[in-house]
């Protein structure tokens, strides 16, 4: 019984992945736009974090010199 339920779960998971893939393919133009926005936002966040890390490094170097 456990094996049967595991197989059913795998089939359901595969169907869900297939449905998501189908929807992504069907709406790929919109998906590309969303991905571009997400990549731009991710780039902004990374640049902000790098800047903040640079500030922390500068502060720690200044405190070490004193």
Blueprint (SSEs and pairs):
Layout: H1 2-26, H2 28-65
Write a concise keyword list for the protein shown above.
66 residues; mainly alpha; 2 helices; elongated
Q: What is the string of helix and strand elements?
A: HH
Helix percentage = over 70%
Structural class by secondary-structure content: mainly alpha
Q: Radius of gyration in whole Å, from Cα?
A: 23 Å
Description:
The chain is mostly helical and 66 residues long. The protein is 95% helix and 0% strand. The chain has helices spanning 2-26, 28-65. The longest helix has 38 residues, at 28-65. The protein is elongated and about 65 Å long. The mean pLDDT is 88.
Provide a brief overview of the structure.
Helices cover 95% and strands 0% of the residues.
């Amino acid at each position: 019984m456990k094996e049967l339920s595991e197989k059913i779960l795998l089939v359901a998971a595969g169907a869900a992945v297939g449905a998501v893939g189908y929807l992504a393919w069907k709406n790929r133009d919109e998906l590309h736009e969303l991905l571009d926005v997400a990549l731009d936002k991710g780039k902004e966040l990374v640049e902000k974090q790098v800047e903040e890390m640079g500030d922390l490094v500068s502060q720690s170097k200044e405190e070490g010199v004193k």
